[in-house]
Amino acid sequence: MATLSLRMGDDLKQKAQQSAKAQGVSSNGFVIANIAPAVAQQETLALFRDRLRDVDQDALHKRVLKFMRRTRPGKELSIEEIERPVRD
Predict the structure, then answer these.
(1) What is the pLDDT of residues 23-78, one digit of tens each?
(2) Which of left, alpha, beta for 24 (phi over 0: left; psi -120 to 50: alpha)?
(3) Residue 76 within any structural domain of the chain
(4) Predicted pLDDT at 49
(5) Structural domain tally of the chain?
């Protein structure tokens, strides 16, 4: 496992430590948990850029619109219905 030294303002450090404490994690865990999604997002964007590089954008747009026309309106789930599986 690698070690990384970070330079940050005292105010940011204090706020990060407070946030970590509020979440019940170490400062290190807090920083990792907040950097990991940013890294994953960059990797995902790079993947899609690579996969879409040689794609005919007009044809893709037409396919998306065709798919969207086939969607049917339906009953929206309530917040309780969305949260129920997480609670159970």
Answers:
(1) 999 999 999 999 999 999 999 999 999 999 999 999 999 999 998 888 777 888 88
(2) left
(3) no
(4) 94
(5) 1
Q: How far apart are CA 82 and CA 22, in angstroms?
A: 26
Residue 56's domain comprises 10-71
Q: Looking at this protein, which amino acid is placed at residue 5?
A: S
pLDDT of residue 60: 93
Structural domain includes residue 5: no
* Position 80 in a domain: no
Cβ(67)–Cβ(56) under 8 Å?
A: no
Q: For residue 77, tell me if it sits in a domain.
A: no
> What are the DSSP calls for 2-68, one per residue?
--------HHHHHHHHHHHHHHT--HHHHHHHHHHHHHHHHHHHHHHHHHHTTS-HHHHHHHHHHHH
How does DSSP assign 64-76, residue by residue?
A: HHHHHHH----PP
pLDDT for 87 beyond 80:
no
**Would you state the pLDDT for residue 3?**
93
